[in-house]
UniProtKB/TrEMBL annotation:
Keywords: Transferase. CDD domains: AdoMet_MTases. This is Methyltransferase domain-containing protein. It comes from the Eukaryota. Pfam families: Methyltransf_25 (PF13649). It comes from Metarhizium brunneum. Residues 47-149 form the Methyltransferase domain. Coiled coil: none annotated. GO terms for molecular function: transferase activity.
Length: 283
C-alpha cells in the first residue's frame, strides 16, 4: 500500500511534531546566530519571520527592533510554536515585541493579521527548500514588503545534502513524491533569477556552512549505511517507516551512490553542508 500523500501544511505539522523538543539542541542555534549577523535590523523595524520554528530568529530580532518595532512570526507546526511561546512567556522583551501566529507561510493571503506592503524585513531560514513552487512563494512574500524592504532567505547548496539527492531519485523510482523541492537548485544563481524576476534586487549572497568548517566532505562507500540512516530518520522521510518501503529505498539509494562514485571517478562522493543566504531589496 502506497503511503498517503500529505499537503505541505500537513507535512510540516506532522513532521516537526517530533523535532520540536530537541530542535534547539541541534546545529540550528549556532547557524541561526551566523545567519542573523547578515541582517541589518534597525530600531523601529517591522520584521516578519516565516517558518519561525522555535523562534530562533525572532529571539535575536526582538531586542534589535526596540519598543517602536515589532516582530511577527509564523509557523505551521503547533509543537514548534509551543516551544517559542514558552520562551515568550518568560522573557519581557519577547512578550512586548513578538506576535506569534500558527499559519501556512505559503498562503499569507488568508492570514488576516498581516498587512501588505508594511514590513521592513522578511526572514525565512532552513525552510524554503520545502516549497514546491518557489516563484509563487516569492511573489506572494514580496507583496508584504514595503518599497526598500529586504527579504533574506537561505537555500541549500546544489549539492546539499548529497544523500538527499540520492534519496530523491530512489523515492521517485518507487513512484512516490520526495517531500522537498530541489530540482530548481542548479547553482548559486538559481535563486537569484527567481528573486530578480519578482522586482527584488539581490545585493548580497553569502555561503554559510551548516556547521563552522564543515563545508564539503568526501565520503567512501563505507559511509552508505550511516548516510542512508541519517536521511531516512529525517522528519521529512516518515513515509519510509514501513520496512518494506525502507528496504527497497535502501537498495535504490545504494545504486545511486555507486553511480555517482563511478561518474566522479575517485571512489568517493562529494557531500556538501553549505547553504546560500540571499539578501534582496524590493525595488
Amino acid at each position: 500500500m502506497t503511503p498517503r500523500h500529505f499537503s505541505q501544511f500537513e507535512q510540516a505539522q506532522k513532521s516537526y511534531q517530533t523535532r520540536a523538543k530537541d530542535y534547539d539542541s541541534s546545529w540550528h542555534p549556532q547557524y541561526t546566530a551566523r545567519f542573523m549577523e547578515l541582517i541589518d535590523i534597525q530600531p523601529g523595524d517591522r520584521v516578519l519571520v516565516l517558518a519561525c520554528g522555535t523562534g530562533l530568529e525572532a529571539v535575536i530580532a526582538c531586542p534589535l527592533v526596540g519598543d517602536n518595532g515589532l516582530v511577527t512570526a509564523l509557523d505551521a507546526s503547533a509543537a514548534m510554536m509551543d516551544v517559542c511561546r514558552k520562551k515568550q512567556a518568560t522573557d519581557e522583551i519577547l512578550s512586548r515585541r513578538l506576535v506569534l501566529i500558527q499559519h501556512d507561510v505559503t498562503d499569507l493571503e488568508s492570514c488576516e493579521h498581516l498587512e501588505k506592503g508594511s514590513y521592513d524585513v522578511i526572514i525565512c531560514s532552513n525552510a524554503f527548500v520545502l516549497f514546491d513552487d518557489p516563484g509563487r512563494v516569492v511573489s506572494q512574500w514580496a507583496g508584504y514588503l514595503r518599497r526598500g524592504g529586504r527579504l533574506i532567505v537561505d537555500i541549500p547548496h546544489e549539492n546539499h545534502p548529497r544523500q538527499g539527492l540520492f534519496m530523491k531519485k530512489a523515492i521517485q523510482q518507487m513512484g512516490m513524491t520526495y517531500p522537498a523541492s530541489r530540482s530548481w537548485i542548479e547553482s548559486v544563481d538559481s535563486f537569484r533569477g527567481i528573486l530578480e524576476a519578482r522586482q527584488l534586487h539581490v545585493f548580497r549572497v553569502e555561503a554559510l556552512d551548516k556547521e563552522p568548517g564543515k563545508g564539503h566532505v568526501f565520503l567512501g562507500r563505507e559511509e552508505i549505511g550511516s548516510m542512508f540512516d541519517y536521511i531516512t530518520q529525517d522528519h521529512l522521510m516518515q513515509c519510509l517507516a514501513d520496512e518494506q518501503f525502507r528496504s527497497k529505498a535502501r537498495l535504490l539509494f545504494e545504486r545511486e551512490w555507486d553511480s555517482a562514485t563511478e561518474r566522479e571517478g575517485n571512489g568517493k562522493v562529494k557531500v556538501s553542508y553549505v547553504l546560500y543566504v540571499y539578501v534582496a531589496e524590493k525595488v
